[in-house]
């Protein structure tokens, strides 16, 4: 039997999971438990058969028990799985590669929680619960920040007092497993060796980030100390003038927590036009909503600015790869983000761009110097692959 890896992604109130056959990447089972800790939780399991079950999982431990029950009831069996891979949002400067989890790694993830207060504690809870539930297979932490650890100081340093930097204030970047997977897949789709391919990855989902990848190595990315910086997102502002914060404190008498919440959950597309789901934003644009039209302009212009900046940084650009919910599905966002870049050798083919497909594909003209493509991301497969490599390394 080929190796099978269980990938777990524990959020503050959810557990998402996927069981992968590493021979061919087939998804053997997937599912999620959502609304953990709320009045009624919901488990959806797609295994040998499908289960959809309301429940009352008060804790992640109960949620994990429900997942194990679902596997026992609706298959496939988890017996003999090779490894369990955990998505961990923040690995700080400490982790540039995935690691086998032991008590020390758990402690490090806990110590990094101030940098990702919404994510790391939930990831850690998931790890603790899963290690108890599955004591057999090795557990591996795969960090969202790890791929970006190759950035040079010119990219990761903020121009702030050195003592802040010494305490960990710097750009880390996120969505790293997606940027790693997509940049590799883009080189493959272009028929080029990864080492000789320069790519800008545009991960445009509810969260959004761009990265500049030279020969498979990340040289810059748009998210920073936290996932708030950079592109305009569903509910996050992305880049803004940091002086806005003292301004709000002084004029609106807002607390730090209120500002933090507003910039993370009430800004971005939602702040600009009242909708954070891109499909709804377009519905409003099509109905003549001026705010929605402006929201699209702000968001796509921001993408374009990053494309220009990263092109300059890379010096030579071979590929631009769109990925994630918006990047994979929204041809209008793709077209606006790259509109007018013909002089830079970036030329979309409108017909190819309009094709709807779940496959990786090229959407630039044959004459475009830069190959533009849509590459569906597969973070779970990337996490599973990295997990397996660590698990096998550990055994030999
Ligand atoms: P993600 O965070 O990667 O799951 O992406 C979620 C975002 O993708 C949401 O804003 C969705 O509205 C957007 N999305 C999904 N499908 C489409 C589509 N067909 N057209 C435009 N946006 C889409």
From TrEMBL:
Entry superkingdom: Bacteria
Output the Gene Ontology terms for molecular function: kinase activity
Q: Say which enzyme class the record assigns.
A: transferase
Q: Could you tell me which Gene3D superfamilies the record lists for this protein?
A: 3.30.420.40
User: Cofactor: bound how, per the entry note?
Assistant: Mg(2+). Can also accept Mn(2+).
Q: Which organism is it from?
A: Actinocorallia longicatena
For this chain, the family text in UniProt reads: Belongs to the acetokinase family.
Q: Which residues bind ATP?
A: 16, 203-207, 277-279, 325-329
Query: Binding of substrate: at which residues?
Result: 87
Pathway, per Swiss-Prot/TrEMBL?
Metabolic intermediate biosynthesis; acetyl-CoA biosynthesis; acetyl-CoA from acetate: step 1/2
Q: What is this protein called?
A: Acetate kinase
Active site residues of this protein: 144
Give the InterPro entries listed for this entry. Answer: Ac/propionate_kinase, Aliphatic_acid_kin_short-chain, Aliphatic_acid_kinase_CS, ATPase_NBD
Q: Which PANTHER family match?
A: ACETATE KINASE (PTHR21060), ACETATE KINASE-RELATED (PTHR21060:SF15)
Q: Which reaction equations make up its catalytic activity? A: acetate + ATP = acetyl phosphate + ADP
Query: What role does it play?
Result: Catalyzes the formation of acetyl phosphate from acetate and ATP. Can also catalyze the reverse reaction.
Q: Which Pfam families match?
A: Acetate_kinase
Q: Which UniProt keywords apply?
A: ATP-binding, Cytoplasm, Kinase, Magnesium, Metal-binding, Nucleotide-binding, Transferase
Asked if the Swiss-Prot or TrEMBL record annotates the protein with the keyword Kinase, the reply is yes
Please tell me whether the keyword rRNA processing is annotated for this protein.
no
What is the E.C. number? 2.7.2.1
> Where's it mainly located?
cytoplasm
Q: Which residues bind Mg(2+)?
A: 9, 379
Q: How does it assemble?
A: Homodimer.
């Amino acid at each position: 039997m080929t190796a099978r890896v269980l990938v777990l992604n524990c959020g503050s109130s959810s557990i998402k999971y996927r069981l992968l056959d590493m021979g061919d990447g087939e998804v053997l089972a997937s599912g999620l438990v959502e609304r953990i800790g709320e009045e009624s939780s919901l488990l959806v399991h797609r295994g040998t058969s499908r289960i959809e079950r309301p429940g009352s999982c008060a804790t992640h431990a109960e949620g994990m028990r429900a997942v194990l029950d679902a596997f026992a009831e609706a298959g496939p069996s988890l017996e003999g799985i090779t490894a369990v891979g955990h998505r961990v949002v923040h690995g700080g400067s400490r982790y540039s590669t995935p690691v086998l989890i032991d008590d020390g790694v758990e402690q490090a993830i806990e110590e990094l929680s101030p940098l990702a207060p919404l994510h790391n504690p939930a990831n850690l809870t998931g790890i603790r619960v899963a290690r108890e539930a599955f004591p057999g297979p090795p557990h591996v932490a795969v960090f969202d920040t790890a791929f970006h650890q190759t950035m040079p100081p010119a990219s990761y340093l903020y121009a702030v007092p050195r003592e802040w930097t010494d305490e960990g204030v710097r750009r880390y970047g996120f969505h790293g497993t997606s940027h790693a997977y997509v940049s590799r897949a883009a080189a493959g789709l272009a028929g080029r060796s990864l080492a000789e391919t320069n790519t800008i990855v545009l991960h445009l989902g509810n969260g959004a980030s761009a990265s500049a990848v030279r020969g498979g190595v990340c040289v810059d990315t748009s998210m920073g100390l936290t996932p708030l910086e950079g592109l305009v997102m569903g509910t996050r502002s992305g880049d803004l003038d940091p002086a806005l914060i003292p301004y709000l404190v002084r004029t609106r008498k807002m607390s730090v927590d209120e500002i933090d919440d507003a910039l993370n959950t009430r800004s971005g597309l939602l702040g600009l036009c009242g909708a954070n789901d891109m499909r709804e934003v377009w519905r409003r644009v099509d109905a003549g909503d001026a705010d929605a039209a402006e929201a699209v302009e702000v968001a796509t212009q921001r993408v374009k600015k990053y494309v220009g900046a990263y092109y300059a940084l890379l010096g030579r650009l071979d590929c631009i790869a769109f990925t994630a919910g918006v990047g994979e599905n929204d041809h209008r966002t793709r077209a606006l983000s790259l509109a007018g870049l013909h002089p830079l050798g970036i030329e979309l083919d409108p017909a190819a761009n309009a094709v709807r497909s779940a496959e990786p594909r090229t959407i630039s003209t044959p004459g475009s110097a830069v190959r533009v493509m849509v590459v569906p991301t597969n973070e779970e497969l990337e996490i599973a692959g990295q997990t397996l490599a660590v698990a096998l390394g550990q055994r030999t």
